[in-house]
Amino acid sequence: MNTLMIIWHSRTLASKQAANCAYQGALHVQRELQQNHSILFIPAENVQAQQLLQANAYLFCAPENLGSLSGIMKEFFDRHYYTALGKIEGRPYSAIISAGTDGQGALTQLKRICTGWRLNEQIPSQIFSFRAETEKDILTLKTLTEQQQQIAWEMGATLYALISD
């Protein structure tokens, strides 16, 4: 059975919301195509190596923290890097970075890791900026805009369709 794996980490709910919207998009396509491929919606800290190796496509949803990937998402990649190296090459992926202002540092870091794994970015990765510059704004729980929700939904739907061919 093919598997889409949506791996997320979130502190202010933005990345979890993005992952959930993608999950809903994947479920929609699953029903439309009347297929039963697996869709895993899993926090980065709970991913097991076997799950990662068995998945056919990946969506990584993470916040930017201090210009880099969040520590928990980075730890996920560190923990599984050598286990997956040479074993998941060519599989499609995309990413959504939730950022206070920029997001490029985190996205660049994630893309470098995925390049090392030889994954194939089938859908352009996205940065959802929340224009949070003050401590209060940074710590506030976030809500995705309708446009961001739609983008995430479409990313999940498209990745599911890719594993259904």
UniProtKB/TrEMBL annotation:
<dbReference type="Pfam" id="PF03358">
    <property type="entry name" value="FMN_red"/>
</dbReference>
<dbReference type="InterPro" id="IPR029039">
    <property type="entry name" value="Flavoprotein-like_sf"/>
</dbReference>
<dbReference type="InterPro" id="IPR005025">
    <property type="entry name" value="FMN_Rdtase-like_dom"/>
</dbReference>
<dbReference type="GO" id="GO:0016491">
    <property type="term" value="F:oxidoreductase activity"/>
</dbReference>
<feature type="domain" description="NADPH-dependent FMN reductase-like">
    <location>
        <begin position="50"/>
        <end position="117"/>
    </location>
</feature>
<protein>
    <submittedName>
        <fullName>Flavodoxin</fullName>
    </submittedName>
</protein>
